[in-house]
Amino acid sequence: MGGVVIPENNQEINNTNIMEKPAGPCVIVIFGASGDLTMRKLIPALYNLSAEKLLPDEFAVIGFARKKLTNEQFREQLSGDLCQFVSCELNSPELQGWIARRLYYVQGDYDDPSSYEKLKTLLFEIDQKHKTQGNRLFYLATPPNLFGTITKNLSQTELTKQDDQTWKRVIIEKPFGRDLESAQALNHELLTYLAESQIYRIDHYLGKETVQNILVFRFANGIFEPIWNRNYIDHIQITVSEELGVEHRASYYEEAGALRDMVSNHIMQLLSYLVMEPPYSFDAEAVRNEKVKVLHAIYPYSHEDVLSCTVRGQYGEGVLANGENVPGYRSEPNVNPKSNTETFVALKMMIDNWRWAGVPFYIRTGKRMTKRMTEIAIYFKKPSFTLFRETVVEDLETNVLVIRIQPNEGISLSFSAKKPKPTLDIGTVKMNFTYSDYFGNKKAAIGYEALLYDCMHGDATLFLRSDNVECAWSTLTTILDVWGTLPVRNFPNYASGSWGPKDSNKLLTKDGRAWRNSS
Ligand SMILES: NC(=O)c1ccc[n+]([C@@H]2O[C@H](COP(=O)([O-])OP(=O)(O)OC[C@H]3O[C@@H](n4cnc5c(N)ncnc54)[C@H](OP(=O)(O)O)[C@@H]3O)[C@@H](O)[C@H]2O)c1
C-alpha cells in the first residue's frame, strides 16, 4: 500500500510518517482513452499524483482508441475536461502544462496488429524523448470483451515482454466476468499471454482511503483486534446504498444487476478486509493470501439458503429526500419495461472459520435508497443485565462500532453512560472520529491515485489476484443460479427513496435484529 500518503501531523496526533518517493520512469498506455473513465478518473488522478510530486519527470501517457484524434486534439480535450474533475486548489496552469506535454495519442483498432506496431514505434520515440526506460503500464479502460484481444495483440507485438531491466504491467478494469465460468475463462485468456505477476485487476473501491484504513484500524491499534471475533461480536451489517438511480448505465446494468455490480467485487473486497486474519506483512502476496482464505471460508449457500437468506428488489417510483419525484426502474431510459433486473440485494452470509463461526453478516446494497451511504456496523454482544435488574433501567444497548466509508468518512463507537440525575438511568452516547477533523482536511482524492501509483511501483497489494476473483464468484454462483430459475413476480417491490423491500427487514427481524437505518 505504498500509495497511502500519511499527511501532515494534526497537533494532537503522533503520526507514523512514510517517506513517499516518486514512481520510477514509465509510460502509461490507456486503451479506450476516448472514454468516460479516462476523462473523469484516470487523467485527473494522474494530475493529482503530479501535484503531490509522486510522478517522475521521465513519464508520459499514450491514449489509444478508435476515435480519430491528433495529439493536439487529445491534449486539448483532456486539459479542458481536467478543470471539472480536479479540486480547485490543485488547479494550476503549470501542472496542466506538465501533464499536457506528456500526452500522446494513437488512433487504432483494438484487433489490428498494425495499430500495435504504430504504438510500438511511438513508445520507442517516447523512451528517447522522455527517458522512460522501456517501462510500460497498459491500462485496459475498454469494455471487457476487448481485454483478451488487447492482451493477445500486446503479447504478439512483444510489448509485454519483460527483461531484467524493464517491467511491463497490465491493469484490467472490472467487471472480471459475470459469473464463475466467465471469470475463469477471462483469467485463462489473460494468463495465456501474461504472467499473473503482470496482471493488476483493479477495484477502485480499494483505492478509497477509508477502505485502506480498515486494515490500519484493525492492525495498527492494540485494542480492537483482541475483540474482533465471535466471542465479542454479535453480528455485522454492511450497507452500500445509493440515492442515484441507474442514470446513463442502463445498457450495462440491465445485464448486471446489483449482485454482480456491487456484491461480487466491492462488497466482497470490503468484507475480506474486515474479516481476514492478520497477514504476516503488508507484502502483496501475504495480504492477498489472507483475503482468499477468508473468502474460501464463506459458508456455501444451498438452494434453500438462497430462498431464506437472500432478498432481491427493484425500485418503483417514489420521492427522494429532497422532495424530487422520480420514476421507477422500469420507466428509466433504455430499461426493458418488464425488466426483472434487481436494483437491490440483501444477503445473510456466514463465515465458517474459528474467528467468525456463528456471527451473521448482513449485507445490503441498492439504488434509489433513502440516502447515499457506505458503512460497516459492528454490533458487539450485550453485557449481562444482572446488575441493573433492580433499577429503572429496562434494557442495555449493545456497543456499535461504525466505520463510515462514505460520506462523512470516519469511525464512531456508541456506548452506555449514566444520565446525570439522582437515580440510575442509562443513555447511549457516541465517540466520533471524522476524517475531515484531522490530517489537514485534505480534499478527497479521486480514488485511483493510490492504485496507479502502487502499480507503477509494482505493489499489487490493492489489486485482485485471479483466485480472489474466482472465489468471490463461486460464493455467488448458487444465488445467481437459483434466481435465474425463479423469476420474480413482485417487482417493483420498493419505493424510490426508501430503505428497500420489506422482506429485507424480515431477514434480520426473524433473527431478532434490525437494520441500522441511520438518519
Ligand atoms: N467510468 C467509470 O467510472 C468506471 C468505473 C469502474 C469501472 N469502469 C470500467 O472501465 C472500463 C472503461 O470504462 P468507460 O466508462 O471509460 O467506458 P466507455 O466510455 O464505455 O468506453 C471506453 C472506450 O472504449 C472504446 N470502445 C471499444 N469498443 C466499444 C464498444 N463496443 N462500446 C463502447 N466503447 C467501446 C471506446 O473508444 P473508441 O470507440 O474511441 O475506441 C470508448 O471510448 C469499462 O470496463 C468499465 O466497466 C469504469
Q: Can you characterise this structure?
A:
This protein is an alpha/beta fold and 519 residues long. It folds into two domains: 26-173, 3-Layer(aba) Sandwich (Rossmann fold), CATH 3.40.50.720; 207-384 and 465-509, Dihydrodipicolinate Reductase, domain 2 (2-Layer Sandwich), CATH 3.30.360.10. Helix content is 34%, strand content 19%. An eight-stranded mixed β-sheet has the order 8-11-12-7-13-14-15-16, with helices on both faces. The protein has a six-stranded parallel β-sheet with strand order 3-2-1-4-5-6. Strands 10-9-17 form a three-stranded mixed β-sheet, with no helix packed on it. A hairpin with a 7-residue loop joins strand 15 (410-418) and strand 16 (426-434). Helix 1 (36-51) crosses helix 2 (71-85). Mean pLDDT is 91; it is low at 2-19. NADP nicotinamide-adenine-dinucleotide phosphate binds next to helix 1. NADP nicotinamide-adenine-dinucleotide phosphate binds at residues 32, 34-37, 40-41, 65-67, 141-144, 146, 173-174, 204.
